[in-house]
Amino acid sequence: MATQTGYDNFFEFLAAEGELGSESISRLKTALRTSRLPLDVIITELGVATDIRLVELLSAYLRKPAISPTGSNEALLAGYNLDYARSAGVLPFEVVDDRVVIAMANPLDHSAISLNELYFEKPVDVRAATRKSIQDAVEVLKREAEAPPAASPLENQAMESDDVARLKDLALEAPIVNLVTQMAQLAYETGSTDIHIEPLSDQIRVRNRVDGVLQVVQTLPKPMLAGLTTRIKILSSLNIAERRIPQDGRMRLSIRGQEVDFRVSTVPSVHGETIVLRLLRHSAGVTTLEGLGYQAADIDRLRNASQSPNGLIIVTGPTGSGKTTTLYALIATLNRPGVKIFTIEDPVEYRMDGITQLQVNQDIGLDFPKALRSVLRQDPDIILVGEIRDRETAQIALQAALTGHLVLTSLHTNDAVGAVTRLQDIGVDPYLISATTKLVIAQRLLRRSCDHQALVSGERCDRCGGTGYSGRTVAYEIVEINAALKSMIDQRATEQALRAAVQASGTKSLNAFANDLVDRNVTTRDEVLRVIQQEPADV
Ligand SMILES: [Zn+2]
């Protein structure tokens, strides 16, 4: 998204040109802040300017001629995702003087510009074009690229434009608009991490995930589904006419004066589209290591390891074990003006000032390895690689850790020693692992027992809603890769041998840590069994 300042300069230009009064500009700013729709859509929908006039104004502002995007260079578009092109209103056109000329409906969208620069590995020359002309050009390209569909004409054809218009009307009805706002508000205020909107045979079930567990929060009449899904799709810039394939997007809502971002995922199910909204909390929500439940002596060990100008720190655990939260808490201790910090994530879960956060975008081919190579050309000191899943990412990340960068990452393994064998299994040279890895943390999140302090007998406890739990804390083990372990790794010691050596060194295990929490009544035996001891074998 373009920065507010980027738009402000354009608005000043419009005012100076006598094109817009201050009242129109403040309406535009409000709409930009609250709707999350692209700039060109807002300007045309508010009737401030027609799309053709807007292209003239943007071209004058950019001092670049407008472009008609028909007849794009096909070689340039080989591999480029046309669905992204259509939904983002972005179409690469040709290469001139080693710059990629790109038609854009919103040529002030810096995030789209940098995504395309990373994709093409060339600077981008943006030109304004109407959204309609880009979408039409994409349709032509798609028709040329695809054989005519063999499906029967009765089945699953794209919706007629009347249907799309009807959906848009539904999504603008006040009850639907309010419903989405209230759902988001409830989730935000109860500390939920996700909202699940699930169509069943005769109703819609809404469940929120709180402290890792789903709870039913409401059921809705089935006829609301079309309006509800369309509303969310419009807010997330998704294609409302497409209900047959999964779509992913993002939306931003203002909740009690706070901007809250959501990652949106839609998937078709037999009873209609099911939607999951993930709340992406901003840096105000980044917890400290203390707040997470790390002990003072261990925080010192983590800080010492992360002061080093190079090397690798790994956090392991299954999905939902708080790996990203811990990595960000660590980043927060390292974030200062003299240090250049990059994150590469899928998705970016927290926003933090002072660091550069990059979202992997498979749609345009910006995967982890490609993003990591680009970041390494940007002179980073510290790189957070959201997750290592493949050999190529592992290889680049560990090379970077060897050559003057501190690399933080996560792996999906059950315990700390498992990280070493996982890296070997995906094909990383043991010498590279032993030379770079400083320490490995294995972590789980456990629900905290509620002390029911305010409880008068017979009343339902407000803090925990009667569940007996309120908030979460971490259980963890920290394995420092010392000289003895390094030489075992070099000699390709087995996982069992490494684990025995770690145990013999007196490292407190994840289980022992969790059992201490039970002994101190911080959590319960049941919770430890649910989260740690009964978890299925790692996949
Ligand atoms: Zn309670």
Give a written overview of the molecule.
The structure is a single chain. The chain is α/β, with parallel strands linked by helices. Helix content is 42%, strand content 22%. It contains 22 helices and 16 strands. It has helices at 4-16, 22-35, 39-45, 51-62, 74-77, 82-88, 110-120, 131-145, 161-172, 174-189, 225-235, 289-292, 296-307, 323-334, 368-376, 391-402, 416-425, 430-436, 483-490, 495-504, 510-519, 525-533; strands at 90-96, 99-104, 124-128, 194-199, 203-210, 213-221, 247-255, 258-269, 272-280, 311-316, 341-345, 356-359, 382-385, 406-411, 437-449, 469-480. The strands form three sheets. It has a seven-stranded mixed sheet with strand order 12-11-13-14-10-15-16, sandwiched between helices. A hairpin with a 3-residue loop joins strand 4 and strand 5 (203-210). Helix 6 (82-88) packs antiparallel against helix 8 (131-145), helix 10 packs across helix 11 (225-235) and helix 21 packs antiparallel against helix 22. The chain is globular, with a radius of gyration of 26 Å. Mean pLDDT is 86; it is low at 1-5 and 148-158. The structure holds zinc ion. Zinc ion binds at residues 450, 452, 461, 463-464, 470.
What is the compact description of this entry?
This protein is an alpha/beta fold and 539 residues long. It has helices at 4-16, 22-35, 39-45, 51-62, 74-77, 82-88, 110-120, 131-145, 161-172, 174-189, 225-235, 289-292, 296-307, 323-334, 368-376, 391-402, 416-425, 430-436, 483-490, 495-504, 510-519, 525-533, and strands at residues 90-96, 99-104, 124-128, 194-199, 203-210, 213-221, 247-255, 258-269, 272-280, 311-316, 341-345, 356-359, 382-385, 406-411, 437-449, 469-480. Zinc ion binds at residues 450, 452, 461, 463-464, 470.
